[in-house]
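call fold(seq) -> tokens
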Amino acid sequence: MGKTLKFLSLFMVALVLVFGTGGEVDAKKKKKKIKLTEEEIEMLDRWEVKPKKRAKAVKDLRKKPKFVGAVKCNGSCHDPYYQAWTKSPHGGTYELLKAGVRKEAKVRAKLDPEKDYTTTPLCLRCHTTGYKQRGGFKPAGSKSKKGKDTATKIDPTEPNKEQVGCEMCHSVAGGSQFRAVMKSSKGDFTKADTEKYGQRWDYANVCTRCHTHPKTPFQPTVHDKYKFNFEERKLKVHKIADFWSEDNADQKVEKKEERAKEQGQSEKTPLVIEDFEEKGGKLKFKKGTKPYNSKKKTYNYKG
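ret:
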């Protein structure tokens, strides 16, 4: 018995010497350094990001773009904007899809006022955030290939992806990356800095995605109030004046006026507007109309 134990001990030692331990392998993986590009170094230098924080910043910037929801903009970043948004028309778009809500308007547009439209693909594209895109809203009944419930959790007290949030107007494929820009730069970024990661500044253009889409039932021919005037509509989006307080006074966007003097690429040549339709009960984006090509990792601007 003693010889057997001695043999096993020697065998285990040999295995460790040859293959090492799992801990050593994990340690090597953790020690793997991220090599920064010259462009990233220039950007981080300009933002005065400390050396110890650079790897984390670049790691966040290199992640695939995805929708994260308006709640991410709340709290310590843009609380007044978030609070104002919850009271705006965009902050309640999902509610309009529910049965019995806005009956008169639905009847006028030849929709069934008693029908629940909260799972209707064509409606969800314009009434929620990022529907059918990475990280975007998923309606009730959504499941993974393994049958796991993947529907977006809805908190009535904290509007998020179930409404038309920040990213629907400000981003191309979600705000995960340019949130990292804002954090690393501490707000001192240029329009070009965030455009590299999918922020858009062609707001008058992007609003047409839904407000003048040929498939929307709420056409000007139905009622004059559906005539879209960007300058008038934008006044209803960020009524932040009533939402400043002692707690969020430090969240004022200091570089806003300075950035307004810049002209971003998306302002010079606006991004294409995705077109979509419903086929077989599913939402389909028409080929060549998406502003972001996830395979090529490029943005598509109008000619």
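The first helix runs from residue 2 to 19.
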